[in-house]
TrEMBL record:
DDE Tnp4 domain sequence ranges: 149-301
Keyword vocabulary terms for this entry: Cytoplasm, Hydrolase, Metal-binding, Nuclease, Nucleus
Subcellular location: Cytoplasm; Nucleus
Main localization of the protein described in the UniProt heading: cytoplasm
GO cellular component, one term: nucleus
InterPro entries (UniProt xref): HARBI1-like (IPR045249), HARBI1_animal (IPR026103), HARBI1_dom (IPR027806)
Homology family: Belongs to the HARBI1 family.
Task of the protein: Transposase-derived protein that may have nuclease activity. Does not have transposase activity.
Protein name: Putative nuclease HARBI1
Cofactor field: a divalent metal cation
Pfam families membership: DDE_Tnp_4
Length: 330
């Protein structure tokens, strides 16, 4: 019996197996699921889904040479969004040229901006608003809240035109980005088009969300903002210099509830370091920087919907251009 078992085992080991050929120019083929999320922030199924959605926009038929596959274009752009590394570093990681990385970032950014209205939506129907209200109420028992609004600055290089209007109050060049989010840290609205010197109240008064409340499209619910925003029937800010216990209680509940929008921006910048100061400065034109902010906000909402974890090393994420790919010995 034992001899028969040894014979069958040796025979099984001698069966010729077909070689599994992997494309080592495509990280999807050799990185495991954990490394893909850690280095590109999206899971393998999410990246494949993006490839299907943007195939017509990113596919480049050519008779001259081998075009970059859509998956590689998307992953090169995701690598930039995740780390904010230089194009040359990104090019070395993916074995493509620096100009190809530039085109990948530009084209994928535009694709994400085009689908922004499908993923960043301010609901107006009563059922959706009621769900948002319940989520906010569970934080600090603050009723009837349909969103929290705040702004953040994204550092950019000094523009060549109208440079002075991009210098913010902290004395560096930036884009002033306004966001409205729900209790799940998901963005309901994003405004990325104003230079850093623009005041938060001015951005708010010229936003579509403000118009929704003013024309009573959203007639039931409040937004929470900090003291930089004007007080409106639908926009509540903290009480300055509270003197009574009720005012102090209101400010405490207001602060804890509104804190979700600050956390939303924090998670956004931790996940996509290209817009965080830890990665330096966005070395693109002001218009391209605005589009990049919208693109990563779309990806952020996709990550929230798919329950993507934050990178485990979000507090210290240097990018040295190394991916744990195959070891090549020459």
């Amino acid at each position: 019996m034992a001899a028969a078992y040894v014979y069958m085992r040796r025979r099984h080991q001698n069966i010729r197996r077909n070689r599994l050929l992997r494309d080592y120019d495509n990280p999807l083929d050799y990185l495991d699921d954990f490394d893909i999320i850690r280095r590109y922030r999206l899971s393998r199924p999410m990246i494949i889904d993006l490839c299907r959605r943007f195939d017509n926009d990113l596919h480049r038929p050519t008779m001259r040479s081998r075009a970059l596959p859509v998956s590689l274009q998307i992953m090169a752009a995701l690598r930039f969004f995740a780390t904010g590394s230089f194009q040359l570093v990104n090019a070395d990681v993916h074995n493509i040229s620096r100009s190809s990385v530039s085109r990948c970032v530009r084209d994928v950014t535009q694709c994400l901006v085009n689908v922004c209205n499908q993923h960043i939506i301010m609901p107006t129907d009563a059922a959706s608003l009621e769900i948002i209200k319940r989520g906010f109420y569970e934080i600090a028992d603050f009723p009837n809240v349909v969103g929290a609004v705040d702004g953040t600055h994204v550092r950019i290089k000094s523009p060549s035109v109208d440079e002075h209007i991009f210098v913010n109050r902290k004395n560096f060049h930036s884009i002033n980005v306004q966001g409205v989010c729900d209790s799940n840290l998901k963005f309901l609205n994003i405004v990325s088009q104003w230079p850093g010197a623009t005041h938060d109240a001015f951005i708010w008064s010229n936003s579509t969300v403000c118009e929704l409340f003013e024309n009573r499209t959203i007639s039931d619910g409040w937004l929470l903002g900090d003291s930089g925003y004007p007080v409106r029937p639908w926009l509540l800010t903290p009480v300055l210099n509270p003197t009574t216990r009720k005012q102090q209680s209101y400010n405490g509940a207001h602060m804890r509830t509104r804190n979700v929008v600050e956390r939303s921006f924090g998670v956004l910048k931790a996940r996509f370091r290209c817009i965080d100061t830890s990665a330096g400065t966005l070395l693109y034109s002001a218009l391209m920087c605005c589009r990049i902010v919208v693109a990563v906000a779309v990806l952020h909402n996709l990550c929230i919907d798919n329950r993507m974890p934050l990178p485990p090393d979000r507090n210290d994420f240097p990018d040295h251009g190394h991916i744990a790919g195959p070891l090549l010995i020459y």
